[in-house]
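subagent[fold] <- orchestrator: predict structure for attached chain, return tokens only, no commentary.
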Amino acid sequence: MTKAITHRVVGKSLYESDYFLWTEDVVAKLKSRNFERVDIENLIEEIEGLGRSEKREIKSRLKTLLEHLLKRKYIDMPDCFNGWENTIEEQREEIMEELTDSPSLKRFWDELFELAWTGALRKVRKEYQPKGFQFPDTWQFNRDIDSVLNVNFWEY
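subagent[fold] -> orchestrator:
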């Protein structure tokens, strides 16, 4: 039988006062099938947060990928090509891994792409337009998952 964790700061729940201890407590209760004592409300909130976190991870990596694809395609700085291509490859691999672990995230691709595109375009314009480089207002290529994760757009 697992020992109940009773640590509590006055006026605060265990969840509010010691998150790590709260996670240990929830796991212990779940393992011992002590479901009636599980902090269900905060557990639900945390699980929902995990889903949001997964989407944020894809969006963040996609934004970085698009930034570097834009740089590689539209900025003529050959000394930077290798670094940009390495980042492109790294982000593609990480996105593929995330989508392999959670394939249901693919249904959010269009939404995440649009958000990532807006952020990527804003960032590269801020950094490179003052130097005379121009970027299109819209993504000029296929935006489906397979294309974005595999096509070297700068070769076209």
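orchestrator: received. Logging for downstream: Helices lie at 14-17, 19-31, 40-74, 78-101, 109-128, 145-150. Residues 68 and 84 are 6 Å apart (CA to CA).
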